[in-house]
Design brief:
Blueprint (H helix, E strand, L loop, with lengths): L2 H14 L11 E6 L2 E7 L8 H7 L11 E4 L13 H7 L4 E4 L11 H8 L3 E4 L4 H15 L4 E8 L4 E3 L11 H13 L2 E5 H7 L16 E5 L19 E6 L12 E6 L1 E2 L2 E2 L1 H10 L4 E4 L3 H9 L5 E7 L8 E2 L15 E9 L2 E8 L1
Parallel strand pairs: 3-4, 4-5, 6-14, 6-15, 8-9, 8-14, 9-10, 10-11
Antiparallel strand pairs: 1-2, 1-3, 7-16, 12-13, 15-18, 17-18
Bound molecules: NADP nicotinamide-adenine-dinucleotide phosphate.
C-alpha cells in the first residue's frame, strides 16, 4: 500500500471522531509495520484515550510494535492531562518512525514531542496529510489561540428566505431528508446555540434523533437575557446533556445551578447579550465547534459581528411572501459594499429542497 493511502486512512480515522471528542481535537492514527496495517485509532468519546493510544491498545502482542511506523494527523501530546503523555508510550513501545501532519500549536505541546521522539532516536517526519486534516487541526488551533470556535449556522427556509409564518409556525418548511441531514449536523458539532425566541415559540427538543446517534445530542447554550424560560420546556427534559443559559448581569433574580443546567452571567450590549463574549465563553469551556439553530435575531447578531464561519442553508421549493419571518433579521445594511460576503462551497438537491453550503470569505 502506498504512503498516500496511509495518510488517507489516518485522515478517515480523524473524520470518524468529529463531534465526539470535546474537549480534545479529533485525531486519527494508524500503526504500520512491514507494509501491514496493525491497527487504526481515533480520539475516543470525551477525548480519551487519544488516537495513538487507542491504536496501540488494539494491538494484542505489543512486541509487534517494535520498529513500526505511526501515522498521526496531529503531533502526539507531551503533557500530562487526563492521561499520561502519548509521546512516552511511543518511545516505550519502540516505534521506528512517526509521521505527523502538523506540529500541535497548543503551547503545552508545540514541538516538544517531536524533540523528545527525536532525542529517543525515533525518526519524525512532518508531512502534509491534506486540506481536510489541516482544517480540523486549524479549528483546534483557533480555539486555543483566539478563543474562537468554528461556528456553523443552520437555516431551514422557504425559497424566499422565510423561516416561520407570522404566527411562528415553522413545522415543517423543509422535507424529512433535509431534517435528517440537520440532525446529522447536530451530531457533528460539540454544542448548539439557540435564542430564547426559538425555544419559547417552538419548544424544540434539539437532540439528535438519528438511529444509533441519539447519544450524540450536543450540549446546549441558550441566550435568555431576562431568564424567561420555563423549566417545563422540552429542552430541560433530558438530564444527559449540559445546558448553559446565558443571562444578563443586570438581572437580580437568584438562580440555582442544577446538575446539568448552568447559568452564566454576561454583560449586555445594546439591549442584547454581548455576542462576542458569548462565543468566547463557549470556547473557554472547551467547545471547538458550535451549530447555531436560530432564530433570526440570533443569526443576525452573529453575522453582524462576523462570527459565522459556515452556513448550511436548506431551502424548500416553497414561497411564503413578506408576512413570513426572515431567516436573518435586521443587519442594518444600506450599502452593497457592506453586504456579508460568503463563498459558495457546494449545492445539493435533496428531493425538492436544496442545501447550499457557504464559507466565510
Ligand atoms: N426554520 C429555521 O431554520 C428556524 C430555526 C430557528 C428558529 N426558527 C424560527 O425563528 C423564530 C424565532 O426567531 P426570533 O428571531 O424571534 O428569536 P431568536 O433569534 O431565537 O431569539 C432572539 C432572542 O434571544 C435573546 N437574545 C439575547 N441576546 C441576544 C443576542 N445577542 N442576539 C440575538 N438575540 C439575543 C433576546 O431575547 P431576550 O432579550 O428575552 O433575552 C432575543 O429576542 C421562531 O418562529 C422559530 O420557529 C426557524
Amino acid at each position: 500500500m502506498s504512503e498516500k493511502k496511509y495518510l488517507r486512512i489516518a485522515e478517515r480515522m480523524a473524520l470518524r471522531a468529529i463531534g465526539t471528542t470535546y474537549p480534545n481535537p479529533p485525531v486519527g492514527a494508524i500503526i504500520v509495520n512491514d507494509g501491514r496495517i496493525l491497527s487504526r485509532g481515533w480520539t475516543q468519546p470525551k477525548g480519551v484515550p487519544h488516537a495513538e493510544i487507542h491504536a496501540i491498545n488494539q494491538i494484542k502482542n505489543k512486541k509487534d510494535i517494535k520498529g513500526a511506523h505511526l501515522y498521526c494527523t496531529l503531533e502526539p501530546c507531551s503533557h500530562e492531562g487526563k492521561t499520561p503523555p502519548c509521546v512516552d508510550k511511543i518511545i516505550e513501545f519502540k516505534f521506528a518512525k512517526v509521521i505527523i501532519s502538523q506540529i500541535d500549536k497548543n503551547p503545552l505541546v508545540n514541538n516538544n514531542s517531536v524533540k523528545k521522539l527525536r532525542s529517543a532516536g525515533i525518526n519524525v517526519i512532518v508531512k502534509n496529510f491534506g486540506d481536510k486534516v489541516k482544517e480540523l487541526n486549524n479549528i483546534f488551533f483557533n480555539s486555543i489561540k483566539d478563543l474562537k470556535p468554528f461556528v456553523t449556522l443552520k437555516v431551514a427556509s422557504t425559497a424566499d428566505g422565510k423561516i416561520a409564518t407570522n404566527l411562528y409556525e415553522s413545522k415543517w418548511i423543509t422535507n424529512s431528508t433535509s431534517r435528517m441531514i440537520g440532525h446529522k449536523l447536530r451530531s457533528l458539532n460539540e454544542c448548539l446555540l439557540v435564542g430564547t425566541g426559538t425555544i419559547r415559540k417552538d419548544n424544540p427538543i434539539l437532540d439528535c434523533r438519528l438511529d444509533g446517534l441519539s447519544g450524540r445530542s450536543p450540549d446546549l447554550f441558550v441566550l435568555d437575557r431576562r431568564l424567561n424560560l420555563e423549566h417545563n420546556l422540552k429542552i430541560f427534559s433530558s438530564k444527559n446533556r449540559k445546558i448553559y443559559i446565558f443571562y444578563s448581569d443586570k438581572m437580580k433574580k437568584k438562580i440555582l445551578n442544577s446538575k446539568n443546567i448552568k447559568y452564566i452571567k454576561i454583560k449586555e450590549l445594546n439591549n442584547v447579550l454581548d455576542i462576542n463574549t458569548v462565543i468566547r465563553k463557549i470556547s473557554g469551556l472547551g467547545y471547538m465547534t458550535v451549530l447555531v439553530e436560530g432564530g433570526s435575531k440570533l443569526s443576525a447578531s452573529l453575522l453582524n459581528e462576523n462570527l459565522i464561519d459556515e452556513i448550511a442553508w436548506f431551502r424548500a421549493s416553497k414561497i411564503m411572501g413578506n408576512k413570513g419571518i426572515n431567516a436573518i433579521s435586521n443587519l442594518d445594511i444600506d450599502s452593497i459594499k457592506n453586504l456579508k460576503k460568503f463563498k459558495l462551497i457546494s449545492v445539493k438537491s435533496i428531493d425538492n429542497d436544496q442545501l447550499s453550503i457557504y464559507r466565510k470569505k
